[in-house]
Amino acid sequence: MPKPITCFVIQPFGEDGHTVERAMRELFSNLINPAVKIAEGRTGRQIICKPETETETPGDIRQHIIDRLINADILVCVLYSSHAGKMNPNVIYELAVAHGAGREAIILRHAEFYDGRTIFDFDKERTITFKEEMLERRNRLLIDRLTEALCAEIEKLDAMRPRVAFGNPNWDALGSRHVQYRLIKNINGLDALDNFSLAEMSRMLNSAQEFIAISDIELRHLAELDVAFFLPNGQTCTYYEILSYNVLRGVDVTLLTMDPKHPALSHLFRKFTAPEAADELQLWRQEIELAEKNFRYLADQIRAADEIPGQRKGKLTVVSVLSGIISARLTMTDEAAVIAPIFFHSKHRGGGPGLWVKNDTTAYQFYRKEFEDLVEANEARPTDAATGAVGRG
User: Fold this and answer.
1) For residues 362, 363, 366 and 370, what is the CA-based torsion angle, rounded to 10 degrees?
2) Which of 170-184, 221-235, 323-337, 349-363 has the highest mean pLDDT?
3) What integer is the mean pLDDT of 303-308?
């Protein structure tokens, strides 16, 4: 069941007291609420859309608003003037934050706003103009136009396409292209990411254009996760499902895992006593084999799946490493990577700090080259004819 769609309304309040408050009540009652209800009926999706004054906001109100501006599924912005030419500063501030985050908004513009003059910043967005008297009763034309705009936004979400700001794939949301490194305080499996959420990891995977590269000694922490990730339409999914979605939309996915027969595995348990080490090694080998088996089964399922019309199907490849060592947990796309060094000779399988890096950094280039070298060295080994497994001699 898809999660409800969130719609955040950027609206004026406070200034001019009763006049603005009355206008916003009429706007929700006679335009926004009816349009939301019709859009729910047409799309079969639940839409949560409430006036900001009806939302509980514990803590810093600025943080709450900015979070909704960046993460709400749909934005609606009300440009309203109770006096000709007068702007409401909080609306302009919030819309500027939205634009900086690469978010487009459906504009509901009062005919008297800014003396009716055009503001270039809003020209390219879907704009619905209303007059004061139109808010006093339900205006079918306005409701239809807003309903169409909401349905169009929901269609974009359901099409599961990565969000593109203003039709420009090069839009630098929040100046993100100027941020090259980001420290992740602790990574102990993707289910315990600190200050880098699974929603962020999902957005990173879903924005891949050409490839996704994943490496770990065992991939167990990925294979055992239940519903935790998100498709672009907001629907929750498993790790297997998010990989399948990306392969079916044309992205090639390669997974590297250590071969259970790798001689280095027995040297990774020096912190254990002799009987513990033997038990841990056997358990680890079993977990490697199970996770690898599951991912190879997924690869077979994807190969058998129908292609999306007009869309090239990508390929999911699982490579078992017997030549060389996997030194880091890695999730990489053609745009960025999350890297966490594996702590050998300890009782913790991985964990510790990690790094998010952009594709123009030295760290990204180094780990991409290391990944490609491991793939090349191990894909050249014989293939198991019975399973189609790569690199299992």
Assistant:
1) -170
2) 323-337
3) 84
Identify whether residues 208 and 81 lie together within a single domain: no
Higher-confidence residue: 15 or 41? 41
pLDDT over 90, % of the chain: 31
Identify the residue whose tokens are 């038990």.
279
Structurally, the chain folds into a number of domains equal to 2
**Residue position matching structure tokens 């964990």:** 351
pLDDT in tens, 188-234: 555 445 556 777 888 899 999 999 999 988 776 555 656 678 888 87
Helix (H) or strand (E) holding 215: strand 211-215
Task: Indicate the residue among 167, 189, 210 that finishes a domain.
Answer: 167
Give dist(CA 306, CA 166) in Å, integer. Answer: 32
Angle, to 10 degrees, between the axis of helix 198-206 and the axis of helix 239-248? 20
Structure token pair of residue 61:
């109100």
**Structural domain that includes position 298:** 177-379
Q: Are residues 157 and 283 both part of a single domain?
A: no
- How far apart CA 26 and CA 82 sit, in angstroms, is 14
**Exposed, middle or buried, 32 (CB in 10 Å: 0-12/13-18/19+)?**
buried
Q: Residue 32: what pLDDT? A: 96
Kind of pairing, strands 328-333 and 211-215? antiparallel
3-state SS, residue 291: helix
DSSP per residue, 287-317: HHHHHHHHHHHHHHHHHHSPPPTT-----EE
Q: Mind listing the pLDDT tens digit for each residue in 121-144?
A: 565 568 898 887 887 788 999 999
| Main-chain phi, psi angles of 15, to 5 degrees | -70, 140
Do 138 and 34 touch, CB atoms closer than 8 A?
yes
- The 10 Å Cβ neighbour count of residue 293 is 14
Q: String of b and e for 182-191 (b: at least 16 CB within 10 Å)?
A: eebeebbbbe
What CA–CA distance (Å, rounded) separates 47 from 224? 32
pTM, whole model, 2 decimals? 0.65
